[in-house]
Design goal:
The structure is a single chain. The chain is an alpha/beta fold. The radius of gyration is 20 Å and the shape is globular. The chain contains eleven helices and twelve strands. The strands form two sheets. The protein has an eight-stranded parallel barrel, surrounded by eight helices. Strands 6-7 form a two-stranded antiparallel sheet. Helix 2 crosses helix 3, helix 3 packs parallel to helix 4 and helix 4 crosses helix 5.
Length: 324
């Protein structure tokens, strides 16, 4: 009989053995749950393209935040639809807007929950682009002071982490300077350092009413074909003062996550975006996949690639599965 001394299958023989030698562990503590807040009261409006997710009034967002915290999820990220839009997105720094009100209300109700504020202008501008326009061109440097206002307003409301997602050059340094000047020295920056111009964002744009009215965002978000450029973006944002580096989307860019992990020692976040979520939900609704197994496998792949933080709409379901 053939003698086989090296048998990797020995380490797979039972769940007990597999758990002892498992190289990557997924935890509820890895998750950030994104929420969408809207004007009004007592509103929970389902998002058709994102089953299980809803647009919420501030009071309902507070209820959800309590549920999230009780499940052991340590953090939420707050997105919002404003009551008004204009050319420069001024509602983005209005302290009476849903995002600022939600951050303040959630921080009061669940003080230990870490609140991430998304800093961008696309949901707030009448044209749907992420900055101030000069004709049809997004003016990078003219946008930076506006992003500073948004960041400071969210910090004033109680955000623990500011997450600029606009992809303007130099915005991390500008936001760090504004936060420090306003004595928010301990508010962190989680930079969307590597944000690709991706087709996976479709459902989010429905949820946040943030689709551009003309053109697209390829002039400022990254080309999906590029990897070396991603390393340049990471280096710049680390130099400018980012505390956490994000790669977005997650699943189609795990090679980039790995390269970033090998390059820096900063914490790395990934955004398991709306299109990735919606595809899983659609396949599960049709009975084509085992949703629990697919979700946990997918999230584990993001952790295995090198991420420390996973922003995901699956967080509530995954937290329940991991506890079960």
């Amino acid at each position: 009989m053939f003698e086989q001394r090296l048998r990797p299958r020995r380490m797979r023989i039972s769940e007990g053995v597999r758990s002892m030698v498992r190289e990557t562990s997924l935890s509820v503590k890895d998750f950030v749950y994104p929420i969408f807040v809207i004007p009004g009261e007592n509103i929970s409006e389902p998002i058709p393209s994102m089953p299980g997710c809803s647009r919420l009034s501030v009071d309902k967002a507070v209820e959800l935040a309590k549920e999230v915290y009780d499940l052991g999820i340590p953090s939420i990220e707050v997105f919002g639809l404003p009551e008004y839009k204009d050319e420069i997105g001024s509602s983005a720094w209005d302290m009476k807007s849903p995002v600022q009100r939600a951050i303040a209300a959630i921080k009061k109700a669940v003080p230990e929950l870490v609140i991430v504020g998304d800093v961008c202008l696309c949901q707030y501008t009448s044209h749907g682009h992420c900055g101030k326009l000069d004709g049809h061109y997004v003016d990078n440097d003219a946008t930076l002071p506006l992003l500073q206002k948004v960041a400071v307003s969210q910090a004033e409301a109680g955000a623990d982490i500011i997450a600029p997602s606009d992809m303007m050059d130099g915005r991390v340094r500008a936001i760090r300077e504004a936060l420090d000047e306003n004595k928010f020295l301990n508010v962190s920056i989680m930079s969307y350092a590597v944000k690709y111009a991706s087709g996976y964002y479709g459902p989010f744009r429905d949820a946040a009413d943030s689709a551009p009215q003309f053109g697209d965002r390829r002039a400022y978000q990254m080309d999906p074909a590029n990897a070396h450029e991603a390393m340049k973006e990471v280096d710049l944002d680390v130099e400018e003062g980012a505390d956490i580096i994000m790669v977005k989307p997650a699943l189609a860019y795990l090679d980039i996550v790995r390269r970033v992990r090998d390059r820096i020692e900063h914490p790395i976040a990934v955004y398991n975006v709306s299109g990735e979520y919606a595809m899983v939900k659609a396949a599960a609704a049709n009975g084509w996949i085992d949703e629990k197994r697919i979700v946990l496998e997918t999230l584990t792949s993001m952790k295995r690639a090198g991420s420390d933080i996973i922003i995901t709409y699956h967080a509530i379901d995954a937290a329940k599965w991991l506890k079960g």
